[in-house]
Amino acid sequence: MSRDSNTVLLRQQYTGEPRQAAHAFYQARGLYFGLVPDATDPAQQLLEAALVRTLARPHPQIPAPSAAGTFFGLRGASPDLDTLVLWPHPDHQPQLLGRILPVRTDSGIAGIPGLRARPHPSRTDTLLLARPGHRAHLTLRARPAALQRAEDHILAVGLEPLWSAGTSQPGERQAWDSLARTLPPEEAALWSRALRRAGLHTGQVPDWTRSAPEPGQLEGPKPQRIAARPVGPAGGPARGIIAVTSSLGQAGLGCTTTALTLAGALARTGATVALLGADDPNGFHRFLGSATMPPGQWQDLLPDLPGPGTLRGMILSPSAPNAPSLLAEAAREHDTVVLDAGATFQLRHLAGHADVAVVLTGLDPEVWGSTEILDRRPDWVQMWDWLNTRYLTARARASDPHSRLLHFLDETFEMYVWDRVSDDNPDVYDPADPAAWWADFQPGPEGEEDEPLALPEDVDTELLDIWRQDFLTFLAREGAIRHPGTWAAVAAVWIDHNRSLDLPGSTGDEALVEEVLREAAPAAIARWGEQTWQEHHPRWAAAGAHTRKDSLTPWQHLIEETIQPADPAATARFLLAHLNAPDDIPIALAIAHVDDAIEAEQHHLAAIRDALRAEGIPALTVMPDLPGHEERRGGLQFLVRPSNRETAAANRLALVAADLLATRTHP
Fold first, then answer.
1. With 0-12 CB in 10 A as exposed, 13-18 as middle and 19+ as buried, what is 266?
2. Each residue's pLDDT tens digit, 17-33
């Protein structure tokens, strides 16, 4: 039996998956991220942990037959980087789905709150499991008919299945939040690993009804042989130069951070990796906390990197005539070279010397799809939110020079009071430089909501009036010069106006509130009814602006946004129209700064990927927002973290880039 066959059998021993699936994984991945990789994305870990813990601790109202010889009804699992295929036993599909999908019981919601199942877009024997709007997802080898049998199973015991509803049902969001709070990251990682190594316990599942899995229970027979290392079916790591650049040469897409995290992911596999970047203020050397990294010299970026891998870096001058030769030399001395080609003013002109390129691009949300909002908040909450919007609009419309100057004096007096409290000095501004603070007088953005007056609570009311007069006297000369048309009128009323703002519940613009309510009444009554209007509009009017806003916060979880994806071909055309990539080398297009909503639509991403492939773009991936050097603390240690969203994205990108290199080497 060949060594490769032994490796495939070892994976099967851990996972319990069919031999064909184990062989396919090894052919595609080798051991770059381990023979049985753990999930690295915390969101994916949490979903997997919730699933296996739900199976280990079934709800007493949901009957489940004995599933001897299985892992809670599963034959096994096929783990990959942040994706997981579940293989249910054919005899237990309905019962398995009935236990993991959400069900309303007498004591609350059982199963995984918010989880939904839908047919796979390209496989008739597969279901996709995900919480809508969240990037974590699972794949279950079961035909859609199993969902109906699971529903019949739940209805037969007098319970309500929630998964057939297209949207989240009342209580599901709170139930999920409660479940997530009971699964800290360290414990979630163990539950997730237990699911990914289901084959270890198909004979006899440990009792995890009261305690979480222990690391020793999940090691398996040969933990060293499943560890990550740069070995694949071809015998070693993919070799070559990977350039990371932006689609049109523009800055701001995160090329440097992407190049650095990609290099770190490759080094974690055990490969020797070189990272080359420009001598630029935003270059990767900034992550080291020093701007003095000498150009043209190698520096070990991760001297304490676990495992045999290495990551070295060098700074190149964009105008250096020997830059191409240094790049070629780096390729001879390392397994993989990552070139931070960046924007036009950095090293983008060297991208053509690479073997493959990762090209970062932006994506207009409107091109991705349209957003639909489902508002499940009580009628009065919706009405308050609607009135808030009308109030802000009316205030912006009524913002004349008189009102703006009043507001400016209110804000400036607040600072004046706090300064006087700190040192009892009335001369808090330099009379010789009045422009230093008068320059702040400008209209705020339309619709911006003011913060309430926040004066010290221990200052006597009479003393505040004395300070108001001192403040106004100090400003009078310069105010009359700068605002000759409004100063006299504002100065005449400002003290009374400012005093009223310090009263609880006062808005300072009661007349405007009355106008808003008078104009809004007919539409509000038509939409929410006479009773809701009469009961709740006086409460809204009596509340201060800040209170109105804060009162809505506890209800935000009842607003759900769903995306209706656009035509994949149209999205692909948009991406191609904004693409200016190096010629004659394969590229992976990476959409930068994506959010959960885009990552959650895996089937839509797959359709766009297919459309781009037809146009000659072999790979598409997505990158979340990655922190820049100004947000980092502790140098480059973030590159060795075993689990976070950034690590997960970097690992995915490393696989895409390595696949491109391997394809170029072995077409």
1. buried
2. 999 999 999 888 888 88
